[in-house]
């Protein structure tokens, strides 16, 4: 057998193996996909006055709009989505607290590294779950946990 035939034979069996695996092992593919994450994105109004109202309009780079609305004091806006790879899709919010306004990414590749490991994943799925918890305060925007304002990321 010529070298060429041997190479062809090997490459055919390799591609049959991958084709077989692709068709028959979708759960294997998900379990070993280390980049897939479930993301809880939360925006808490930690201001101390109801007036002026805090308006928030957020959407993802995939066109998922999570509303253009006010968030009452101590209340939160939340959404959940799958990120793959980490940082995608990007979520951007426009914040308005008259007369102040600011737009920035509340979830992207950089922000992903500042989120915290969260409970709430479905055990069998083995998808890691993170929580990206924002607090809107009178002097700016912080990332922390539900009970802790945390680290400042932006001024108003
Ligand atoms: C959000 O809603 C307010 C009030 O209904 C409206 O004035 C504003 O134009 C809306 N903004 C966007 C970006 O849709
Ligand atoms: C929002 O954050 C405050 C702390 O600033 C906390 O007391 C409150 O419970 C949070 N709201 C929700 C809905 O978790």
From TrEMBL:
One family name in Pfam for this protein: Self-incomp_S1
Matching InterPro entries: Self-incomp_S1 (IPR010264)
Source species, domain of life: Eukaryota
Cellular compartments per GO CC: extracellular region
Subcellular location(s) of the protein: Secreted
Cleavable signal peptide: 1-29
Keywords assigned by UniProt, alphabetized: Secreted, Self-incompatibility, Signal
GO terms classed as biological process: rejection of self pollen
Family statement: Belongs to the plant self-incompatibility (S1) protein family.
Name this polypeptide is given: S-protein homolog
């Amino acid at each position: 057998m010529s070298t060429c035939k041997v190479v062809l034979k090997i490459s055919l069996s390799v591609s049959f193996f991958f084709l077989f695996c692709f068709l028959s092992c979708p759960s294997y593919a998900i379990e070993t996909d280390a980049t897939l994450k479930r993301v809880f994105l939360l925006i808490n109004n930690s201001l101390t006055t109801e007036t002026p109202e805090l308006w928030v309009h957020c959407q993802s780079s995939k066109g998922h709009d999570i509303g253009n609305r006010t968030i009452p004091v101590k209340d939160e806006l939340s959404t959940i989505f799958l990120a793959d790879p980490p940082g995608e899709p990007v979520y951007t919010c426009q914040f308005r607290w008259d007369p102040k306004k600011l737009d920035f990414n509340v979830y992207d590749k950089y922000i992903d590294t500042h989120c915290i490991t969260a409970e709430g994943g479905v055990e069998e799925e083995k998808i890691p779950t993170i929580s990206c918890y924002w607090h809107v305060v009178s002097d700016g925007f912080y990332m922390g946990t539900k009970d802790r304002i945390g680290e400042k990321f932006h001024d108003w």
